[in-house]
Structure formats: C-alpha cells, structure tokens
Write a structure and sequence with these properties.
- The longest helix has 14 residues.
- This protein has a domain of 222 residues: Vaccinia Virus protein VP39 (Rossmann fold, 3-Layer(aba) Sandwich).
- A hairpin with a 5-residue loop joins β7 and β8.
- Helix content is 35%, strand content 22%.
- InterPro entries: METTL2/6/8-like, SAM-dependent_MTases_sf.
- It is an enzyme of class 2 (transferase).
- Its EC number is 2.1.1.-.
Length: 318
C-alpha cells in the first residue's frame, strides 16, 4: 500500500492517547457526565427532523458546505470493481457529495438515493444533472424516505421481497443452496414485475449520526432489509472525541454522546463498540471496523484539528 493510500486509512495520531488527553481535561468533563433526559429534550418527531434538514440544505444551497468525497474508492475498493448494472442505495444523500464521484467513475452502476429532506433531494438532483455524469436519467433515482421511521416504498421493495430480505439468516440452517436460489429468484426474474429488488451496496456516510439514538437500530435494520444476501454496507461517520464533539456546549447535550445544534439537527459520536453492537444486532457480519484519525491544519488560524471518524464495512450473510 502506498503512502498516498495509507493516508486514507488515517493513522495520523493514536486514538487511545487522544481519549486519555480529553478525558483528563477538566474543561471537557461535562461530555462524560451521566445524562438525565429532561422533558424539553424529548425525542424529536420525524417531521421535525425533516424540517430541520430542509432548512439546513436550503441555507447551504450553494453546495460549498460539502466537498465531493473522492476518497470513497480508496476506502471501499469494492465500488471500483463492482459488476455491470450493480445497484447501490445511498441512504441520506445530503447534497450528492458521495453519489457524484460514484456516478462519475462508474458508468455501469445504478444509483438510488434517499433522504428525509426534500430540499436535500432537490440539491442532489441539481448537482448531478449539472455535472458531467453519463446518462443520469437512466442511472440515478432520488426518492424521499426516512429510514429511521418507516420501511422503504413498495416500488423499491415490495411486501413479499421486503419480508424475505428482512429475515436474519438462521446460522444452524443447512439448506443454504435452497435459500440462495430463493433469494436469486427475488433479485432476477421477479424484480422487474414487483419492485427494484435487493441492493448490491448501501452507502451510509455521515447519515446515521443525525438519527436520534432511540431510532438507530430501526434505521440499521432497514439498511439490512434492502440489501441482497452477500451485499455490502459501507459506513463512515463521526467518531468519539472528534473535534466537532468537543465544540458542543453542555446545554447542547440531548443524550449520551448525542448533541443538538441550534438549527435542530443532531449529531451522535460513535465508538467502535457502539457501531459494532448496532450492525451485528441487525444481523450484519463485520468485515472492517476502525477509527480514522486525521490531523488537519487550519493555516489561517494556525490551529491543528484532530478529526476522528469511524470506518466500517459490513456484509449481509448469504
């Protein structure tokens, strides 16, 4: 692996050392104190979440707020080598910063994009149609879906396919061939009649952290349900002790490692354990899971920033 590639797996500093330094800083102690949920911090409804994100994307409509995620193919090389007509669902598409490099570099991939915010879907569509992507009309389909509160629309996954794909496999079951043939049927001949069928890939990039903690397991279970057996989920999100976590004030805490910004949008910071529990609890197999520790320097302010992200790759069992 070249030095250029290793920077994507980012070991600029040791996470354990960062943890000790932060936990020993008395000015940051409020982040680790037990949290008691008050009435006014009660969990937001799905419509409020959508409203907050609509306003957010409307404010940042120029798209300068997000940078195109060009690291995706280095972090998730399976995307670069995927088969023709592979199907991918981007969950929480934001303004298209994850989808654009995928559509641009892979002319044979079919991309579906969902978000709870209609404003985000409009932004993504604008960005993709304004770029040099080959035939976006036939390869890109955006739709509104809050994966933390409801199942996917039936045109995407019909009732019977949803029921079959949602089942966690019984590891003790030995008739794998029959199971596999049954799933193949769902994803080939039947998909044209009843629905799109299962996805080969799901990308969940800086999306899950915006979901209220008590809805996260539902959200991950829905990601499991839309994948074909053997399909992969690519995960990247805010890690524990990331610089942005430490910027939140004590009164912005709305739960354990969970914060709310002034605009109503949320942010949760994942540890490797909390990530593992969520995905394995939904039935996934862990393929990769690690902290990405990146040191970036703001030259204008002469300030070093310690960024922590969680990188994960999870597979739906065959």
């Amino acid at each position: 692996m070249s030095s250029h590639e290793t920077e994507y797996h980012s070991n600029d500093f040791d996470w354990e050392e960062l943890r000790q330094r932060i936990e020993n800083d008395p000015t940051l102690a409020y982040h680790f104190q037990p949290f008691t949920r008050h009435h006014h911090h009660s969990v937001t409804s799905s419509s409020l979440d959508s409203q907050s994100w609509n306003q957010f994307h409307s404010r940042h409509s120029t798209g300068k707020f997000f940078k195109e995620r060009r690291y995706l193919f280095k972090e998730f090389p399976e995307l670069a080598s995927c088969e023709e007509s592979s199907k991918l669902l981007e969950v929480g598409c934001g303004n298209g910063s994850t989808l654009l490099p995928i559509l641009r570099c892979k002319e044979n991939i079919l991309v579906y994009a969902c978000d709870c915010s209609t404003e985000a879907l409009d932004r993504t569509t604008e960005v993709i149609y304004a770029s040099n992507v080959v035939s976006p009309k036939s390869r890109f389909r955006p739709f509104c879906w809050d994966f933390s509160t409801s199942r996917p629309p039936t045109w995407f996954l019909c009732d019977s396919c949803y029921e079959t794909l949602s089942q966690k496999p019984n590891i003790l079951h030995s008739e794998h061939d029959n199971d596999e043939r049954h799933f193949t049927d769902i994803n080939s001949s039947k998909e044209r009649e009843c629905c799109i069928g299962g996805m080969d890939f799901v990308t969940l990039v800086f999306t899950l952290s915006a979901v209220p903690l008590d809805r996260m397991s539902t959200a991950v279970a829905e990601c499991f349900s839309v994948l074909k057996p053997g399909g992969l989920l690519f995960f990247r999100d805010y890690g524990l002790y990331d610089m942005t976590m430490l910027r939140f004030e004590a009164d912005q805490r709305v739960g354990f490692r969970e914060y709310k910004r002034a605009d109503g949008t949320r942010s949760y910071f994942f540890s490797l354990d909390s990530t593992r529990d969520l995905f394995l609890g939904a039935g996934f197999i862990q393929v990769e899971l690690e902290y990405c520790c990146v040191k970036s320097v703001n030259r204008r302010k002469q300030k070093t920033m310690h960024r922590v992200w969680v990188h994960g790759k999870f597979q739906k069992p065959m």
